[in-house]
Amino acid sequence: MITKEKCGALALLIFSIAYGYQATKMPLTFLAAQEVFNSKTLPIGLSVAGIIISVLILVLPVSDPEKRIPFTEAFKGKVWGQTIMLFVNMAFFGFVMPLLGFIVASIIFLLAGFFILGERRWLRMIITAIGVVVFLWFLLSYLMGIYIAPGEIFYMMGVIDV
Amino acid sequence: MFDGLLNGMMMGIETAFIPMNIVIVLFACFMGSMIGMLPGLGPITAVALMIPLTYGLNPATGMILLAGVYYGAIFGGSTSSILINAPGEAAVVATTFDGYPLARRGQPGKALAVAAYASFSGGTISVILLMFFAPAMANVSKNFQSGDYFALMILGLTAISAFTGRGSFLKSILMAIFGLMLSTIGTDQTSGTQRFTFGSLELLDGIDFLLLAMATFAITEAVFIVLNRDAASDSFKPRNLGFKSLKVSKKEIKSIIPTVGRSSLLGYFIGVLPGAGATLGSMMAYGMERNLASKEDQAEFGKGSLKGLAAPEAGNNAASTGSFIPLLTLGIPGSGTTAVMLGALIAYGINPGPRMFVESPETFWGVIMSMYMGNMFLLVINLPLIPYIARLLAVPRNMLVPFILFFSIIGVYLITFNAFDIKMMVIIGVIALFLRLMDFPMAPILLGFILGGLMEYNLRRALIINDESLSFMWERPSTLIINLITLVFLLLPLIREARTRISLMRQKPAA
Question: What are the domain boundaries of chain B?
Answer without folding.
Answer: 2-510
